Amino acid sequence: MYHPLSLFVGLRYTRSRRRNHFISFISLISTLGIALGVVVLITVLSVMNGFHKEVRERILGMASHGDVQAVDGRMRDWQEAMSLAREHPRVRGAAPYIEGQAMLSHRREVTGAIVRGVDPAFESEVVDVAQHMVSGALSDLEAGKFRIILGRELANVLGVTVGDKVTVIVPQITVTVAGSMPRLKRFTVSGMFEVGMGEYDRGVAMVNIRDAALLQRLDDAVTGVRLRIDDVWKARQVSFELAEALEGRYRVLNWTDYHRNFFAALKMEKRMMGLLLFFIVVIAAFNIVSTLVMMVVDKQSDIAILKTFGASPGQVMRIFIVQGATLGAIGTLVGIAAGLALALNIESVVAAVEQLFGIQFIDPSIYYIAKLPSDVQATDVILVGVGSFLLSLLMTLAPAWRAYRTQPAEALRYE
Fold first, then answer.
1. CA-CA distance, 258 to 63, in Å (whole number)?
2. Which of 6, 72, 102, 290 sits at 20 to 30 Å (Cα–Cα) from 253?
3. What is the pTM of this model?
4. Are 243 and 88 within 8 A, CB to CB?
């Protein structure tokens, strides 16, 4: 790309000691500014990736990757649907479920929640709720025992612990001689879970699927069949393929359908945060312009002499492009190295800062996490590095063009 003369002189200007120490200072500041911007970008994007991954895993700890539902809400031949779904090579587990809105009451406390009927024999194939049990076990939900497992926040709202009775009221009417009465049943709290997402810890309760069927008068029918897929990012594709295989008899959804807006908001947040933080690099790159402009003014006589000895304007222009690109490359590489080191060890760094200053950045009682998550993605690092270097290269064009237009006679007039 560069002529050997341009490359040699440009690199020499970069590492040579200058008579004007102010230019050297500005060069150092611009290089460090770019490095700092790259460090901040990589670290912040990695932490945001870590939070997004943490949220996604917690959501998928209670929500299945895929969901096969009957159009009318009553799937009577669910065994056949589950068998057909298991035949797909990417489906790793399947479990029937019954789900509906209900009111839960204990003494004077009343609150709404989603009551989910599950089969303990199959539920662990599709979700990781067993790993989030605070007390009790999923296997405690035996058919006919009318036991219930509550989210921890839901249990706190009702003021119940393991062994207490909870009345579950469903929005269905039973006609008796005394008049129309809502359907209700008393359940015994056998356990509690805590996922770390208010949507589930506050709003979900689980019972045995047969008990839920009796409560909702579904007989042998279920609401649908939940699926686990080997790759969560293939869930949408698998749902389309299953819909074709099931010949349109059932509605096939995936986890992105339930949380599309939420994850779209997270993605937009990451983009906007990255764009705003990139302005740190932009500001640092402007320092390269001032460095090269002062360098061109300082080297007017050198430029004139080079042109006098036969150097073309293009070669002179490339000298300062090489110098600016070198400053940008050094800043970018230093920033990437420091950014990766910080992002990969952010937990230890934060712990050290907390201990040193006696502060707490993350309160586990609020965020449900005790450490700062970080997920370094190669795509983000590459985009930040390439973007930073290209921006630095772009900033060299105006000063290099000024060197290109330097006239030897005018520059050497007073020499």
1. 9
2. 102
3. 0.72
4. no
Assess contact for 225 and 87: CB atoms under 8 A: no
Domain assignments of the chain as residue spans, ordered by start: 4-57+262-411, 65-254
Nearest to 252 by CA among 218, 225, 230, 216: 225
pLDDT for 96 equals 92
pLDDT digits (tens, 9 = 90+) for 124-160: 888 888 888 889 888 899 998 999 999 999 999 999 9
The mean per-residue pLDDT over the stretch 271-296 comes to: 79
DSSP assignment string, 198-240: HHHHTTEEEEEHHHHHHHHT-TT-BSEEEEEES-GGGHHHHHH
* Contacts of 183 by beta carbon, 8 Å cutoff, 6+ apart: 169, 170, 172, 173, 174, 215, 217
DSSP classification of residue 111 = E
- How many CB atoms lie under 10 A from the CB of residue 260? 11
Integer-rounded Cα Rg, in Å, for the chain is 32
- Residue 284 corresponds to which tokens in the numbers above? 């640092």
